[in-house]
Amino acid sequence: MTTVEAPASHLLENPFEIAQRQLQLVADVFGISDDLVKVLGQCKKALSVSIPTRMDDGSVEVFQGYRVTHNIARGPSKGGIRYHPDVTLDEVKALAMWMTWKCALMGIPFGGAKGGVICDPKRLSRSELERMTRRFTSEIINEIGPERDIPAPDVGTDASVMAWIFDTFSMNKGHSVLGVVTGKPIMIGGSLGREEATARGALYCIRQAVQKRGEQLDGMTAAVQGFGNVGLHLSRFLVEDGAKVIAASDSVGGIYNPDRIDVSAAIAHKQETGALAGLRGTEEITNEELLLLDVDLLAPCALEQVITGENADKVRAKIVCEGANGPLTPAADEILEDKGVLILPDVLANAGGVVVSYFEWVQGLQEYFWKEDEVNAKLNDITTRAFNETWVTRESKQTTMRFASYGLAVQRVAEATTTRGLYP
Ligand code: GLU
Predict the structure, then answer these.
(1) pLDDT tens by residue, 343-384
(2) Active-site residue 339, yes or no?
(3) Which of 110, 283, 333, 403 is the most exposed place for a label (fewest CB within 10 A)?
(4) Measured from the CB, is residue 357 less than 6 Å from ligand 1?
(5) CATH class, range 44-176
(6) 198-223 pLDDT per residue, tens
(7) How close is the Cα of 305 to the center of ligand 1, in Å?
(8) CATH top-level class for 197-344?
(9) In CATH terms, are 44-176 and 197-344 the same topology?
């Protein structure tokens, strides 16, 4: 018998402990009471389920899945479902807490949730993925729903996974329930602009930041880590605004050209071969090297904890835009702040996805669908307002963009909690 060694997890620190520590630090700056920190520092509910799934070869595999609600003081809980081999309950709890802050900062009427299944979606066939998703949905069916908890895509899930969740839920109710999940394919009630929304929101934040610094995006150099939904579209949008994307990467590795990468060719190459590596006119670099390039803008759009106390002092970017959730550890935050790097934190920079998820939920409930221009204009309004509120708070409190954004959000959730009062 051979034993296969599990690859090391990308999680070097416990993400939930990081999220709790961040909350405490923010509470100190914003004068949030200890009682509220005790309430907001925990997740309201965490469901852990096993998901027996028939594999294509006839055997049965049992996957582990989670759905966590952090807080519902401001509305039903909202957040994606992640399919990844490194998923842990504490990772899902941290991501759920960050969703609460993200929705509050954006001023949309949701609390925070997250889900995850420990699996490698790249190694599952489509039919295995579908059977696993449908069984997972049925295991959490009493917890989700348009007024309760509304899943969406995250790392490793996409519109087809949302279609299976929507269908499984609807089949059990006996009618279509559009509001149960967002990020659905357009033809079954998805919103125009949802797929690109996270990247578009990041672009709107970057535009604001650049403008505030009296600079121009046109001609700036950028490195983008991750070429999934966020990184791919952000690279495209940056190029449309005149920036030069000089490096990009996926989970296998990165590509680099000091002049610029042809992003359209990179997208086509990735579609054809499944990877960025090997694109003509580029050199190969590692994911770690990409983070340390001398660029104006660095956008980590993949997973958590890629910039840590170990490598932060070698980061040379002037602006770091967190397209992913939690790509910087608190130690990295401190080092980069000391170096004068402008950090656009996750709850602000990647909130475009959940904002358009909110629009999709509203459109689904009303069964009335908007034009893409309308979606993008409303997204711009919301992200720009949140950016400006954060910017002003950062100055008035003499703090960082991270603490300003988390602080504004925590204050809003704290106020809602206090106003509603503690039951019973
Ligand atoms: N998974 C995305 C996030 O982390 C989107 C969540 C949603 O649309 O509900 O923000």
Answers:
(1) 999 999 999 999 999 999 999 999 999 999 999 999 999 999
(2) no
(3) 283
(4) yes
(5) alpha beta
(6) 999 999 999 999 999 999 999 999 99
(7) 18
(8) alpha beta
(9) yes
